[in-house]
Specification:
The protein has 127 residues and is mostly beta strands. It contains no helices and 6 strands.
Amino acid sequence: SENLRFSVEFYYLNNNFVISEGGDDRFELHQNLGVNFKPGYSYGDFTTHLIVGVNAFYLFDKNEATGYQIDRFDNSMFYGLEQVYNLNHRLLISLGYSISNFERESFYMPVTLTSTSVLKLGVGVRV
């Protein structure tokens, strides 16, 4: 059907998001990269996509006083939805939300990261 769509998206996010900080210790979600598989259905100028993918996270625990840092590169599955609106045959805007549930504990602090989510607003050009 011409209404069915499928797209693949590769991405890299440079987060530098401090999850917890106390004294000389810091637990941070630093970067993530991944791939989305997005089956969708078009109706008029709108397309709704289900988002399913794999996310790779770079997390670290750091003690600033000693300089010790524990790096971890973990992965998880995620899911979400995205709505795309075609402004014309070349330009589009999109709004999406995805969530990844996983559990990672800090080595230096009594803190656990249980999930992460991304709210995405995009502008695209078709070539």
